[in-house]
What we know:
Structural class: mainly alpha
Strand content: under 5%
Helix content: over 70%
Shape: elongated
Number of strands: 0
Oligomer: single chain
Distance between the termini: 19 Å
Number of helices: 5
Low-confidence stretches: none
Number of domains: 1
Largest sheet: none
Mean pLDDT: 82
Amino acid sequence: MDNLTNLKAIWHSAKTDSLPTPAEMLQLIHQFRSQRLRKKWIVIIVASLLTALMIAVMFIYHSKMITTRVGEVLIAAGCAWLAITNIKSIKRFYRLDDCSNADFLAFIEQTRQNQIYFYKKTQVYILMLISVGFLFYMYETASRNTHDLIITYGLSILYLAFIWLFIRPKTFKKNAEKLNAVRAHLNKVSQQLKDDEV
Length: 198
């Protein structure tokens, strides 16, 4: 009987003021899922439109040089790859409807691993395809005049370098910080629950 009394005393003395309510946890999960799904759908729509646009340009614009065709194919392939990658990724988020805190924490960790893989591998290949395609695509128009060629390629290389060296790492860092903040919050909640159980 003493054990039951001790257990009740521990149960009632546990401080749960700082713990989120189940409704708050569900709201956190729903908010995270909604934000990610919205971003993924925007990327899918934009990448699909760009792919369709490049394919339409291939049929409408009759280029004289093979470099233009190569550029069009590379840009369309890069945009299509981006759309397909996000379509595959979106399935995970639709499965995240009703889950426990532990499941959500595992989901966040898997999302973090996927984010790192995308940044180091997939995004590099996609950006490489689009960048090289962009440079090939512009050659026909810019090659008519040496002065235009130098200016066009100089500005294009600066623009691509800005994307590769500034925009890409900054975006990754910002997304990683947001994901780590959610992960840290969930770890804190889990640790508080474990401490209260002891």
